[in-house]
Amino acid sequence: ENIASPKVKFLLWLVWRGRLKTADFLHRIGVLRGNSVSLCVFCKSVPETLHHILLLCPFAWKLWSSVIDWWGSNWVSPSSVIELLHWWVGFKFRKKELMIWNVIPFAVIWSLWRLRNECIFRGAQPNLENLIELVKVRVVFWAKDHHIGSMYSFHDFISNLSLIRSCF
Questions:
Q1: What's the Cα-to-Cα distance from 8 to each of 3, 5, 46, rounded to whole Å?
Q2: Looking at 10-100, which runs of residues are DSSP E strands?
Q3: What does pTM read for this prediction?
Q4: How many Cα atoms occupy the beta-carbon half-sphere of 123 within 13 Å?
Q5: Nearest CA among 7, 42, 4 for reference residue 23
Q6: What are the C-alpha distances in Å from 66 to residues 62, 71, 141?
């Protein structure tokens, strides 16, 4: 069971199917025309593609690395979001731990996509530290909303995740 909301699950389904409405996708289906190039809103140096904006951009990569470090794990960055999601589901944890682990990519991708849209449509500026904290809060909120680790405070979850995981 994944504890993310239906709209977040739908976004991941679009990602999985390669149908996320990135600039690259919109060019391919003819919505964006001409030779205008839409650069990544985070690094402003590479055209926006699904894999770049959600994984390969240095901004996105630092987010993933920070969240994986928060979990207490290591990783080798895959070359595509699909490879990342395949890698993600290969882990075996206890039930409550697994529910939290499985929601992390949903929180990261949802948060990156929301920030991307805020930058494009509202002129927001990307802030990595704020986004890292927002992802952690989303993961904890979704976990607590499903009564996973409900005896722990938000602060405990965010600051001492490894200790809480050992208690599951």
A1: 10, 5, 26
A2: none
A3: 0.91
A4: 0
A5: 42
A6: 6, 9, 18
